[in-house]
Amino acid sequence: MSARLSARVRDALNLIAFVRQRGGRAHVRDIKQELGLAAARVRELIETATMAGRAPFGPDDLIDAYIERDWVHVDIALDFGRPIRLSRSEALALAIAMRALMGGGDLGHAAARALDKLRAAMSAGARDAVDAAETRVAFEGDDAGIAGRVARLRDAQRRCRAVDIEYYTASRDAMTRRRVRPYALIQHLGQWYLVGRDSLRRDVRMFKVERIKSVAVTDEAFDVPSGFKVERYRRSGKLLVGRVDEARVRFTGRAARVVREEWPPDSVEDAADGAVVGRLHFAALEGVADWLLAHGGDAEVLEPPELREAVARRARQALALYGDGA
User: Fold this and answer.
1) In angstroms, rounded to a whole number, what is the distance separating the alpha carbons of residues 320 and 217?
2) pLDDT > 70: what percent of the chain?
3) How many Cβ atoms are within 10 Å of 238's Cβ, its own excluded?
4) Annotated domain spans of the chain
5) How many angstroms separate the CA atoms of 175 and 194, rounded?
6) Which CATH number describes the domain made up of 3-75?
7) pLDDT tens across 96-113, in order?
8) Which residue, among 283, 280, 279, 282, has the nearest Cα to 271 in the 3D structure?
9) Diameter of the chain by CA atoms?
10) Helical H runs in 55-191?
């Protein structure tokens, strides 16, 4: 089958399914909006549809399709399913969810690929609606994607170039513009943080990347102070509030791959069977327990005992929702 004929058959099947979903009657305006098909194309597809059916291809076995006063009518006796199609609201919700997951690592890359496939499957009208919505929610969401912002910040850090950022401060509910010299990028419990000298505060500060609306790399060069060490900053507890404890966790499977790729090398030790043992710092016992539990059987707490018990307790609570907890 030629590419042209294949496209015609595909469009005809989509048209039939679309009209049948609406009770066998749909206006050409709605068809154009949802499927991106002009009226002339719809008439061509109607001709194709009327030649389709099932054996022995008698009058009652063919698809009955016609246009009357800009309304497309389809009547078919077969049990004719249609390809899965998302409504605009469903596509929008899924697209925003994919943006939220684009934070780097395996999950971020998978989300980016899934979003590309989703957009390719959308009609032109649906893509426009999603683009408009992403622009409106870029403040809270992810206009270019967290992964893209991380990539630009990493490039600026590597080349020792200052960046101009728009940053949202939750405590003041305000957006500010500032120039930052990026000294380091840190990933902590699934979140990215920028550490650098803030021109506004004239001091080294930490910024949550998901709150950065835009990043512009400048030509301003700088040198990282000799006394600044990223691991010293990570271990200083500035990422955490209150008492800081250390845990050792054995990761396997996909979690092991992510930890090996994303965590600082000196906090990861190779173990048997492709597993790794990672060291992490935490302040909220229950919070880190929830995060570890999300990895399922791919994360086993080795120490401290209180964190191991917290994970077990969370697991028992989850099981209790679906049975007797046994």
Assistant:
1) 51
2) 74
3) 15
4) 3-75, 88-136, 157-225, 245-320
5) 17
6) 1.10.10
7) 777 666 554 445 666 767
8) 279
9) 85
10) 88-101, 105-121, 124-136, 146-159
